[in-house]
Specification:
Strand order of the largest sheet: 2-8-7-6-5
Number of strands: 14
Largest sheet: 5 strands, mixed
GO biological process, one term: aromatic amino acid metabolic process
Keywords: Lyase, Pyridoxal phosphate
Shape: globular
Structural class: alpha/beta
Order of helices and strands: HEHHEHEHEHEHEHHEEHHHEHHEEHEHEE
CATH architecture of the largest domain: 3-Layer(aba) Sandwich
GO molecular function, one term: carbon-carbon lyase activity
Protein name: Tyrosine phenol-lyase
Number of helices: 16
Organism: Tamaricihabitans halophyticus
């Protein structure tokens, strides 16, 4: 008998999907310039490009949308959203935004000045671009083990406090606008941060007057790993651990398209009332009035309901279990994957998968394109393309990790779908020598992985 526990939900609505023939998939990837982002979704069989905004909302979320207050000012739906954020995340000041990068934009516009230095536990593309557009320079202060896919640690997303202290000594605390804490770390395959590490960071940043800002998009997943792996937290609820994480920080940017199951939405949470007043002024300029921030009332209702559902123990258990199932199947077949398996995705080590393709020929991008052709499965490159170019030298950045991310939407796919994904990856693994490298045909300036075009090279 399988030890895979059944999902804590049943299906009430279905969306048809279909598998194109291999010749059709080959034509589609050429049309998309070998960029999985540019594929039409109708041509994708199993879509693991992202877990953001593509989750299945519950019947209660859909019902909540029907009572959305669409008032331009003072929406009752905003009041419910703000009260729910305060209850579960604990930030007294809540500023709605259309999604997480809207919150990033507002935060960095307020805090970052030219010449300043922005530490974080591994970069995230949109976060780093916002920092750089405001004149800042990103510094990676994650532990060294996070850059090695084969290293197994329970909290591989932890900040190296020695690295952070060294940076503070070099540039001065006044030149560090804030510390960006991803928990878990997306670009490292969903690796979590321990509560002990957050405590150490709180003490260090408080000593130097540096704000500690949480990327809370998948913080519920991080809370799960703390409950399961960290001494002293096994008997705490997910809701209690989430609140404890947030209580140790000065603010958070939130994409409600992840943990909160919503199709759109986000918020900026702060403790500083004066900073929140400034943020509301900027939200009016760039997002919408400070009581809707780019969201419809129905979306705010869906987010509020989703927050309540996200901390349910059976929901998060099923979520982590599903990701682990796919990762374990691939690892058992010898496929090199990021270890340990994270909370929202399985990441294939493309450099190890395709050692015959040099980094300058973008093995992760080539592997993502080949996986689509093999099985109609859409993943996304998380390596040299995502890292972009150094704004000063114009040279390609070459991160240690060259990954293909398979991000699993919440409550969308069944175990059978994941078996199809596993079989496609394993089949490609056995025929990996046939995959060719790629070159740029069109390269956008910002976040190039979204819109770049490529062509194969011999």
């Amino acid at each position: 008998m399988s030890n895979y526990q059944a999902e804590p939900w049943k299906i009430k609505m279905v969306e048809p999907i279909r598998q194109l023939s291999r010749p059709e998939r080959e034509a589609a990837i050429v049309q998309a310039g070998y960029n999985t982002c540019l594929l039409d979704s109708r041509d994708v069989y199993i879509d693991l490009f992202s877990d953001s905004g593509v989750n299945a909302m519950s019947d209660r979320q859909w019902a909540a949308m029907m009572v959305g207050d669409e008032a331009y000012a003072g929406s009752a739906s905003f009041t419910r959203l703000a009260d729910t954020v305060r209850a579960y995340y604990g930030y007294p000041e809540v500023i709605p935004t259309h999604q997480g990068r809207g919150a990033e934009h507002i935060l960095n516009r307020m805090l970052v000045r030219p010449g300043q230095h922005c530490p974080g536990n591994m970069y995230f593309p949109s976060t780093r671009v916002h920092q750089e557009l405001n004149g800042g320079a990103f510094h990676d202060v994650i532990i060294d083990e996070a850059h090695d896919p084969s290293t197994v640690l329970p909290f591989k997303g932890n900040v190296d406090c020695d690295k952070l202290e060294k940076l503070i000594a070099e540039v001065g605390a006044n030149n560090i606008p804030y510390l960006a804490l991803g928990a878990p770390v997306n670009m490292a395959g969903g690796q979590p941060v321990s509560m002990a590490n957050i405590d150490d960071l709180r003490a260090l940043t408080s000593e130097h007057g540096i704000p500690l800002i949480l990327d809370a998009a998948r913080a519920v997943e991080n809370a799960w790993f703390i409950q399961q792996r960290e001494a002293g937290w096994a008997n705490a609820s997910i809701a209690e651990i989430l609140r404890a994480m947030c209580d140790r920080t000065d603010g958070a940017t939130m994409s409600a398209k992840k943990d909160s199951y919503a199709n759109i939405g986000g918020w900026l949470g702060l403790r500083d009332a004066e900073l929140a007043t400034q943020a509301r002024g900027l939200v009016v300029l760039f997002e919408g009035l400070h009581t809707y921030g780019g969201m419809a009332g129905r979306d705010m209702e869906a987010v509020a309901q989703g927050i309540e559902e996200s901390v349910a123990e059976d929901n998060i258990r099923a979520r982590i279990q599903q990701v682990g199932y796919l990762g374990d199947r691939l690892a058992a077949a010898g496929v090199p994957v990021m270890q340990p398996i994270g909370g929202h995705c399985v990441c294939i080590d493309a450099a190890a998968f395709l050692p015959h393709i040099p980094r300058e020929r973008f093995p992760a991008q080539a592997l993502a394109a080949a996986l689509y052709v093999e099985g109609g499965v859409r993943g996304v490159e998380r390596g040299m393309i995502s890292a972009g170019r150094d704004p000063d030298t114009g040279e390609n950045r070459t991160p240690n990790l060259e990954l293909v991310r398979l991000a699993i939407p919440r409550r969308v796919y069944t175990q059978a779908h994941l078996d199809v994904v596993a079989e496609a990856v394993i089949s490609l693994w056995h025929n990996r020598d046939s995959v060719r490298g790629l070159r740029f045909v069109h390269e956008p300036r910002y976040l190039r992985f979204f819109q770049a075009h490529f062509a194969p090279v011999d």
